[in-house]
Write a structure and sequence with these properties.
mainly beta, 18-stranded antiparallel beta sheet, single chain
Length: 401
């Protein structure tokens, strides 16, 4: 008799219309993963009765719930639904306005460029700090490249070319335009979403299916090592294992995506508006602080309640000067922008993470016969919506969302 193999297991998810109610069986999305588990758990009650036979007379099962996790290697588009749920806002596309007369010039910091328009506003069409845009209607060397915005006002932005190439300095009198690539989400001030998912684990080699419902994204973490692939981990709170059987529940799910996996060496890191090349690691964590309550007369919890969107993390750098120590010592508020690219092409798929306002909560250094590494943890705070940033704790752009 065959036994189940992990490589033959398929994870399919679909957003629910009503919390805890099976999403329709047609469609669904097969999930990319390195590991994933959704397990039914039950509270248990052991009798405390004192007996003359010195033994336990009863043991019962109680309230049911689901604990879930998904770990994967981060790639554009693959986890957009879960990321949007983690920040309580769907990904949306920007609608840029035509630029008109526009000038590209060298920026004040080496490797940056300014793009200045004479009409309209960058800030209303996907041109805020942390967004990636592509130009059209310019010199051929300038068109179609991923440009990360590192500073922004209504009429002028400062950009970094993500694949490390240069821009041609020029002024275009007309027909200038740009696109804001893919879609963007962020922790909003109002209109928060409250998503839940039906998730199936189908063991195709033994024809067994387990389907859980009411799964909400409670945590999301992203890890960027100095060398290696970027990873993503999602933690779920679920309501119940709804059904199990011998055939797959979801019919004709969309196949797993094939966008390239991000490596931390591709992209850019901007701290307090300056390009940083000494980082040896970075972690960003989103915690939704969800809770649930049991009720009398039911073996499932009727709801999983949303909590605050808390964002924190840490990064490590080769110790060069006291810049980060001073940020910590002076309780300075700084910004953090991370851009990841799939490859070194100008039109590579990408993702960006923008934290407009963080405070360092520690500063430590290691020792040894090696380069000294400084470690800083941070707490992200809601931004003010000034200096070209969105008014949020975290903003994420995904070129394939």
């Amino acid at each position: 008799m065959p036994t189940a193999s992990g490589i033959a297991k398929r994870i399919v998810y679909k957003k629910e219309t009503t919390f805890g109610t099976l999403a329709g069986a047609s469609g669904g999305q097969a999930l990319r993963r390195t590991t994933s588990n959704f397990n039914l758990t039950k509270e248990t009650y052991q009798s405390e009765e004192i007996r003359t036979d010195y033994q336990t007379s009863d043991f019962r099962h109680g309230v049911r719930s689901v604990e879930g996790s998904v770990s994967g290697e981060l790639s554009s588009g693959s986890y957009a639904d879960f990321i949007a749920s983690a920040v309580a806002r769907n990904f949306t596309a920007a609608t840029p306005a035509a630029l008109g007369s526009t000038t590209i010039a060298n920026g004040a910091i080496a490797g940056t460029y300014t793009i200045t328009r004479t009409t309209g506003s960058w800030l209303t069409g996907g041109g805020k700090v942390g967004n990636v845009i592509r130009l059209t209607g310019f010199n051929a060397n300038n068109n179609g490249k991923n440009l990360l915005i590192v500073a922004a006002t209504a009429l002028a932005i400062t950009v970094v070319v993500l694949n490390g190439t240069t821009l041609t300095l020029e002024t275009v009198a007309s027909a200038a335009a740009y696109t804001s690539v893919g879609k963007t989400t962020y922790a909003p001030e109002t209109g928060h979403t409250d998503d839940s998912y039906t998730i199936e684990e189908f063991y195709s080699d033994i024809s067994k299916s387990q389907v859980s419902t009411g799964n909400k994204v409670n945590t999301a973490s992203f890890a960027l090592p100095a060398t290696g692939l970027v990873t993503a981990d999602f933690g779920f709170m679920g309501q119940d294992l709804k059904q199990s059987g011998n055939v797959a529940y979801f019919t004709a799910p969309t196949a797993q995506g094939q966008t390239g996996i991000f490596a931390a060496v591709n992209g850019a890191l901007i701290v307090d508006g300056k390009i940083v090349s000494l980082v040896t690691g970075l972690n960003i964590n989103i915690n939704r602080n969800m809770t649930s309550e049991a009720v009398v007369g039911s073996n499932i919890r009727p709801e999983i309640y949303e909590g605050r969107i808390n964002v924190d993390g840490d990064f490590s750098t080769l110790y060069e000067d006291n810049t980060f120590f001073d940020f910590f010592n002076n309780e300075s508020e700084i910004s953090l922008v991370v851009a990841l690219t799939e490859n070194n092409l100008g039109t590579s798929n990408f993702m960006t993470f923008t934290l407009p306002r963080i405070k360092l909560s520690s500063d430590t250094k290691d020792d040894g016969e090696k380069g000294i590494v400084s470690q800083n943890s941070f707490q992200a705070l809601k931004g003010f919506g000034t200096n070209g940033f969105e008014a949020t704790t975290i903003m994420i752009q995904d070129s394939a969302a």
